[in-house]
Amino acid sequence: MRPTGITANLNVPDIEEARQFYTDYLGLSVEEMNLGWVARFTAPDGRATVQLVSGDATSPVSSVLSIHVGDEVEAAYGEAQRRGFEIVYPLTTEPWGVRRFFVRAPDGTVINIVSHKDELA
Fold first, then answer.
1. What is the edge-to-edge ordering of all strands in the sheet holding 98-104?
2. In the 8-state DSSP scheme, what is residue 25?
3. Tens-of-pLDDT digits for all 121 residues of the chain?
4. Could you give the C-alpha distances from 103 to 54, 80, 83, 94, in angstroms and in order?
5. Cα separation of 68 and 7, whole Å?
6. DSSP string, 37-51
7. Phi and psi (nearest 5°) for 36?
8. 20, exposed or middle or buried, with CB in 10 Å at 0-12, 13-18, 19+?
């Protein structure tokens, strides 16, 4: 697998309550995306990004990292299965246009392995 990006997913009780701290104070003032339960904020120069998550829309658990893999999501899923890693959420095409699965790392961390439509060549 060759990650094309990694995004931290911070679990917060309420995205709107957290918004001011991350946008005004930390300067992550560009709201790239907001689905209500997940929002991505980025610095104006694009060099820093964080996602705030108040609960996943379809998975029973939230992830702490999103690993972007472009068109390798199926291969990453197969490799995780081959290695015997726990699949927390199966490979799914979501209504908002991503294809993803959640895998638990040996240390217990839940990772979102994701492919966005705009990452595919």
1. 30-34, 38-42, 49-53, 5-11, 65-68, 110-116, 98-104, 86-93
2. I
3. 888 888 899 999 999 999 999 999 999 998 999 999 999 999 999 989 999 999 888 998 999 999 999 999 999 999 999 999 999 999 999 998 899 999 999 999 999 999 987 654 4
4. 19, 7, 11, 16
5. 8
6. SEEEEE-TTSS-EEE
7. 95, -45
8. exposed
Whether the CB-CB separation of 76 and 1 falls below 8 Å is answered with yes
| DSSP reduced 3-state for 98 | strand
Closest listed residue to residue 56, CA positions, set 116, 108, 12: 12
DSSP string, 50-74: EEEESS-SSSSS--SEEEE-GGGHH
Find how far residue 79's CA is from the centre of its chain.
19
* Cβ–Cβ under 8 Å, residues 9 and 51: yes
> Whole-prediction pTM value?
0.83
